[in-house]
Design a protein that fits this description.
The complex is a heterodimer. Chain A is built from 16 helices and 14 strands. Chain A is of the alpha+beta class. In chain A, α4 runs antiparallel to α5 and α15 runs antiparallel to α16. Chain B is of the alpha/beta class. Chain B has nine helices and five strands. In chain B, α6 crosses α8 and α7 crosses α8. The longest helix of chain B is centred in the middle third of the chain and has 34 residues. The N and C termini of chain B lie far apart (about 50 Å). The model of chain B has no long low-confidence stretch (mean pLDDT about 85). The chains are: A alpha+beta, B alpha/beta. At the A-B interface, α12, α13 and α14 of A face α1 of B.
């Protein structure tokens, strides 16, 4: 049995198997050019194996020369294949070196077929026989050297340089994971190429007399490449697994997200800036009033906006897109069936590497119920304030009745006087005219009282207007004048001459002042008449108007803040809500209401050696200057 | 005496009210002076004039009831008609007890006011008459000699001439003469009138003679 035959056939078939499998791989995935490169290389190695076999069995110089000549074809194929492989797998090979390598080998091939008998020999004269693996093989014994002998060596050198350079560059620039690769595949390639080409050169220069057995290092090289390729397959398999894992994690995450969104009743949406499409969950379409299966577009969304809110929303979107922050707005939309729905839309933007908006992603919520609750609460607060106001006004009922009584009494007296005057002979018409004029003005006065009373008792929405604080105080003093007289309270007004206007609701502010004044009177109820002094002062202080109502009564509890607590009262009757409601009114006006105990050393109330009383301060921000 | 003699004073802190009431009372023939503050009223008021006061209770600084007290403490007998916007019973009772003529609530009907003012003026007249009468009586009494005053005392006590003579230790005839002098000087015609005069003068009962 010929070992050479066996071994070389096995080697050739091994290479062909590799060619076959990797061709199939490449055929299945055309983009995997590395597989093609490898297949070609393996084919080349198979060719070398055949050529070597023929060389060893060549019995005549002519047969030898022919085999040697054709042997350079697979060499060229191998070189090209390896260069291509390295280029594809390493990505670090210098292209000009690659071209040079391939070019040189092409040149070699051309010269091989066009000059002499073979590239190496002008003429092979005789063959020799050597014992190799128990068989005789033929080698060149005598030959005329070709001038192109150096060319294959040069070409191989360049080849080595290319591969070495690519390997070194991979080592340096490829990163940690590529260093290992560089060492493994690059190193092995280098090693085997060096061995093969070195051996060949030695034989060519007839330094040693041996058959060409370059196929073994080439085979080893091919096996190394196969390993590298299979690693690649392994890697891609790992990637597939990772991908599957990621996909399953993604599915889990998506499931969790949907669950959270459903629990919070959120709709999720995402708008892409590139193709202007919107991805949205069914809940979004439900909230917006569209069918769940419909495609949502920006125009559809904008068409649902409530006409009153539309312009401001569009402006808001435009400004959000121009900025870097998120978007968060609450506004109304109008369903096709006319239903008004309040929604909150929140979104965050994603930017591309060029700083342009790529997409906006966010949530949408239906807050109609919450808004309704807010409206109801505001209504209830208004009702409570109204009730409290009615209660306060009813405390004044005696006073108000008196206020109405005065003009009525005057009108009656005047009218009856006029009757007598007109019954006289001659009637005093001039005086009668005066009387009628007085009647008219008294009637108007009564009308004013009724108007004030009606406006106080009216339950309407808060209407904010520009007001003068001093005017409000005068109005209130007019209402309580009688009460103050009846209780023997002396008023010391200290109103600043010029104050900025404030923005507020006249009725509500009157309610607050009324409450403060009545409280002050009640605090002084047990004082002797000379000790009932009520001071009302207004001051312009720090962009705000401050009203201070001071009394000389029984003072405050040790913690003055308590008086504002709901249901805190020192009166025998009463709910104790008055001051709490006042405070909430003041807060709506963006002001402050607080109480301080007067210090006995305060020189404002001389001669009264009793409790110094309390002062309530009301501060309201000045209205913005009118442009 | 004319019912419209004398001055009606009006005091109310509402100028409109003062004006209207002035017109009304003037149309009725009264002479009216109106004031809107107690201070200016007190400056103008002279106690000797025949006058009455229509007074509002609810006034700042000094309310009507306090003014009434002050006048009483100063010994000024000025008939007062109270006017008030809100009348409650305790207030009205206090006013009447303190000597007010009437207590009216606003709006006040002309007829009620005029009636009350007339009553007040009548009281003023009565007071004046009473004062005048007292002055007369005192003047007459001052004409009597001490002896005659003694006799008057006993006559007024209901003693017979005989008894008086015995009490005083003189003769009956002397007593008779004194008695006639007393009657003449006191300008009374009957003992009953003398008794009334004595009562008016505030002469007490004579001590009982020792037995």
């Amino acid at each position: 049995m010929s070992w050479i035959t066996v071994i070389w056939s096995m080697t050739a078939s091994a290479c062909l198997v590799l060619v076959g499998t990797h061709l199939i791989v490449w055929w299945k995935r055309r983009s995997e050019m590395a597989s093609l490169a490898f297949a070609i290389t393996a084919l080349g190695v198979a060719g070398i194996v055949v050529a070597e076999f023929l060389l060893m069995r060549a019995s005549t110089p002519e047969a030898f020369a022919t085999a040697l000549r054709w042997g350079y074809v697979p060499v060229f194929v191998i070189v090209t294949g390896i260069v291509w492989f390295v280029h594809l797998r390493f990505h670090t090979g210098r292209v000009w070196l690659a071209r040079l390598t391939v070019g040189l080998r092409l040149l070699t091939l051309i010269l091989d077929f066009t000059t002499g008998q073979t590239l190496l020999h002008k003429q092979i004269t005789s063959l020799g026989r050597i014992e190799f693996l128990g068989e005789p093989v033929f080698v060149v014994a005598g030959a005329e050297k070709s001038p192109w002998l150096f060319l294959p060596a040069v070409a191989n050198l360049v080849w080595l340089v290319y591969v070495a350079d690519a390997t070194v560059r991979l080592w340096r620039f490829g990163g940690r994971e590529n260093r290992e690769r560089a060492l493994r595949i690059g190193g092995s390639l280098l090693g085997f190429i060096f061995v093969a080409t070195g051996f060949a050169a030695l034989i060519n220069y007839q330094v040693i007399h041996a058959p060409y057995v370059v196929s073994f290092p080439f085979l080893a090289m091919v096996l190394a490449m196969a390993y590298e390729q299979s690693l690649d397959v392994l890697r891609s398999h790992q990637l597939v697994q990772q991908l599957q894992r990621s996909e399953s994690q993604l599915r889990d995450s998506e499931w969790r997200l949907n669950l959270a969104a459903a629990a919070a009743d959120l709709g999720l949406w995402s708008w892409s800036a590139q193709n202007h499409t919107i991805w949205a969950t069914d809940r979004v379409k439900e909230i917006l009033g569209f069918a769940p299966q419909s495609e949502l577009t920006l125009e559809m969304f904008l068409s649902q906006l409530h006409p009153d809110d539309r312009s401001s929303i569009e402006a808001g979107i435009v400004s959000a897109l121009g900025g870097t922050g998120g978007y968060g707005e609450e506004f109304r939309i109008l369903h096709p069936d006319g239903q008004v729905v309040w929604i909150v839309v929140r979104g965050e933007m994603a930017f591309g590497t060029d700083g342009q908006v790529m997409s906006m992603t966010g949530v949408i919520m239906d807050t109609t119920k919450r808004k309704q609750s807010e409206v109801e609460i505001a209504q209830q607060r208004g009702q409570l304030a109204h009730l409290s106001r009615v209660g306060t006004v009813s405390e004044l009922s005696g006073s108000l009745a008196h206020e109405l009584n005065q003009p009525l009494a005057i009108i009656l007296a005047n009218a009856q006087a006029a009757q007598r005057l007109l019954a006289q002979q001659p009637p005093d018409l001039a005086e009668a005219r005066d009387i009628l004029a007085d009647i008219v003005s008294e009637d108007q006065r009564a009308g004013e009282v009724i108007r004030r009373l009606r406006s106080l008792l009216k339950h309407g929405e808060t209407s904010m207007q520009r007001l003068s604080v001093n005017e409000i105080i005068h109005e209130v003093l007019g209402l309580v004048r009688n009460d103050l007289i009846a209780q023997g309270v002396t008023v010391f007004p200290g109103l600043a001459a010029s104050l900025p206007q404030i923005t507020g609701d006249a009725i509500h502010l009157e309610q607050v002042l009324l409450n403060l004044i009545l409280n002050a009177c009640e605090a002084m109820a047990s004082n002797p008449p000379e000790g009932r002094r009520l001071t009302i002062a207004t001051v312009h202080h720090n962009q705000a108007v401050r009203v201070s109502v001071s009394d000389t009564g029984c003072g405050l509890p040790p913690d003055p803040k308590r008086v504002f607590e709901p249901f805190f009262t020192t009166k025998k009757q009463g709910l104790g809500l008055g001051l709490a409601i006042c405070r909430s009114i003041v807060e709506v006006h963006k002001g402050r209401l607080w109480a301080e105990a007067n210090s006995p050393a305060d020189g404002t109330h001389p001669g009264v050696g009793r409790a110094a009383g309390a002062t309530f301060h009301l501060e309201l921000p000045a209205a913005e200057e009118e442009r | 005496m004319s019912a419209t003699e004398g001055t009606v004073f009006l005091l109310d802190d509402e100028p409109g009210m003062v004006k209207a009431l002035t017109r009304l009372l003037k149309a009725e023939g009264f002479t009216v002076q109106g004031f809107t503050s107690a201070k200016t009223f007190l400056e103008s008021y002279r106690a000797e004039d025949l006058s009455c006061l229509v007074l509002d209770i609810a006034m700042p600084e000094l309310n009507g009831l306090e003014l009434q007290q002050r006048l009483t403490q100063a010994g000024i007998l000025l008939p007062i008609v109270f006017l008030t916007g809100r009348g409650d019973i305790p207030m009205s009772v206090q006013a009447i007890k303190s000597g007010a003529v009437d207590f009216l609530t606003k709006p006040v009907k002309a007829a009620d006011l005029i009636r009350a003012v007339r009553a007040a003026m009548q009281r003023a007249v009565d007071q004046r008459d009473l004062i005048a009468e007292m002055a007369l009586l005192r003047e007459r009494y001052s004409r009597l000699t001490p002896r005659q005053r003694e006799v008057m005392e006993h006559v007024v006590a209901g003693r017979l001439n005989k008894q008086i003579a015995a009490d005083l230790g003189t003769g009956e005839q002397t007593i008779k003469v004194h008695r006639a002098q007393v009657m003449e000087k006191m300008e009374v015609e009957s003992v009953a009138d003398l008794v009334r005069a004595a009562e008016s003068l505030g002469l007490g009962k004579p001590p009982k003679p020792p037995r």
